[in-house]
Structures are given as C-alpha cells and as structure tokens.
Amino acid sequence: MTSEIENRAAELRAAASTCETRAQFRRKYPRWPMESINHAVEVLGLKFRRDGSKAGPPKVAQSCPKPKGKS
Predict the structure, then answer these.
(1) 3-state SS string for 6-65
(2) CA 11, CA 23: separation in Å to the nearest integer?
(3) Is the per-residue pLDDT at 54 higher than 90?
(4) Contact 6, 25 (CB under 8 A)
C-alpha cells in the first residue's frame, strides 16, 4: 500500500487539503481500510483538526460549588 500512497501522493494531498477532519478524508476513499488511511496520513504528514473538536480556543473550566444541605 505504501507504493500506492507514494504514487498517488499529489492526489491524496489535494484531497486532504479540502478536508477538515480525518473522517472527511476517509469518506473520499471508502474502499480503503482505516489502517491504510492512517498509514497515508503518517507517510504524507497530513494534518487534520481532531474529529469532533470545535474550532476556537478551549473553554476554561469553572468550579460549581455544591449547595449546602438543609439546615
């Protein structure tokens, strides 16, 4: 599969440039097993935003104190 990845490197990079997540990239190649998709991402050094993560800065956690029991 590595030789196919190297032969199709330009095509795979072009497809990856239009995808935000690895799942979107996988949908472009539905017959490829996930292991091959992961290998292509690793070999070509493709970068994707994490699946399911939201754009923007992370939220800052705030504590929520529990109300005291009945007195």
Answers:
(1) HHCHHHHHHHHHCCCCHHHHHHHCCCCCHHHHHHHHHHHCCCCCCCCCCCCCCCCCCCCC
(2) 17
(3) no
(4) no
The backbone region for 52, taken as left when phi is positive above 0, alpha when psi lies in -120 to 50, beta otherwise, is: left
- Number of Cβ within 10 Å of residue 46's Cβ equals 17
Phi, psi of 3, rounded to the nearest 5 degrees:
-65, -35
Q: Which residues contact 35 (CB under 8 A, 6 or more apart)?
A: none
Q: Which two tokens stand for residue 30?
A: 């539905």
Q: Which of 26-30, 50-54, 60-64 has the lowest mean pLDDT?
A: 50-54
* The overall pTM is greater than 0.85: no
Length of the chain counted residue by residue: 71
